Task: structure prediction
Amino acid sequence: MTDPTTPAPRPDEAPIPPAERVFIFDTTLRDGEQSPGAAMNLEEKVRIARILDELRVDVMEAGFPVSSKGDFDAVQAVARAVKDAGVCGLARAKRHDIEQAAEALQGAVRPRIHTFLSTSPLHRLHKLNMSEEQVLEAITDSVTLARNLCDDVEWSAEDGSRTEPDFLCRCVEVAIKAGATTINIPDTVGYTTPQEYQDLFARVMARVPTSDRAIFSAHCHNDLGLAVANSLAAIQGGARQIECTINGLGERAGNAALEEVVMALRVRRDTLPFRTRIRTEVLTRASRLVSSVTGFVVQPNKAIVGANAFAHESGIHQDGIIKNRATYEIMTPQSVGLEKTSLRLGKLSGSNAFRAKLIEMGYALGDNALTEAFARFKDLADRKKEIFDEDILALVDEGIAEAQNRIRFESLEILAGSKGPPKATIELLMDGQKAGAEATGNGPVDATFNAIQKLVPHRGKLLLYQVSAITAGTDAQAEVTVRLEEDGCTVNGQGTDPDTLVASAKAYIHALNRLAIKRLRTLPPEEGSL
Result:
């Protein structure tokens, strides 16, 4: 079936034959945000939505409108900002949820309501306390209401991979009859295996007589590390929509990573003869933006977008690459948005060279932001012999993040050594006003955090303090990650600086800013996840 809400190809897009078409449904803004500590404010969601639109995802799930006023406003803002992709709002099988989703999506170029209900025996008994007939009735009522409010309706069988095949077929048939245009059979807990999942789609589509009236979708979690493999298997079983997130962000072990699914389809067309409309050259920028906004570091050996994905240190590999890049690279760095550079930056470089480097790396900053970033660069270059691309990315991303924070780092002085307890003197900008404090601690980091807590009282418990070097060498920038937990809310904060203690203070302040945002978010106790 051809999705009636699919955008027409742009002038720079070659049309894709329907038999080869795979739709990409991105849920970074909804399921990805459910990762502990990954809360995004409205402005951050809109920034990510715009790069997803540039990436040319077919549909983006902007949030769960009924969960809070903040989420409703964010879905509404994304719906109005996105110019090409479909925008989707999640809703439980409840009238108020569905009506809120419809209202939040007004103004979207291609709105979609995504409603779901658990179908597995485990969920029916322990979560819903509903019989099979009650579940079928709820599916009919919710999908019918959604279809009356929106032409494009997706229905999901939560925990579908653990649902009895006979009952799953009945649920799918009922949902299609009620007006669902997309049927999602998620592997909600990442339990299935590729062959099982492929067979499940093939069996359901063969047994439901009206299956040709809907697009079938796969939504895989990564609890066993099989999310991408299961997603690709679903395509082989007949699914034509894959639900995924940038960097594999999501609850628990995360979701299928969009960049991995898309590049697997692009590189292995010999065994997977399918295509998406994704502009793969935008993948790296999208990955870095999501990492910067959420504070979730992309592991260096992460496929496609990790720092080491196109790095070769072994002499044997280097020799092969010099002779023929295909010996050790199955795709080019340029195909995912990485560009090799011959422009080396140092303390004698001017602002024009710095601007050119940022443009090459995918950043287009305004004059004020460029001036601030260049000042930070010159300060770093005075203290560091060699500037790497990762250093520049860290400087820019830090500046973008700081622009949205109410609490900002100003200065830090540390007195430490073998005599007496370490003492930290900190100065912060709080809503534009300078404030200072000093404190002692068991070590310089403890003293720094104690001084910050004097200025920003909170009940957050430190769960993680992690230091890593962005690049090699004794003058490398330190990257510090801090995780705080307060009343069940968990947030991550990051900071970078050649001085590890300064980076630690910045990370702690970043976490406190995110904790302030998180306190404003409230979700219904019965909220589910796909």
Notes: The chain has a mean pLDDT of 87.
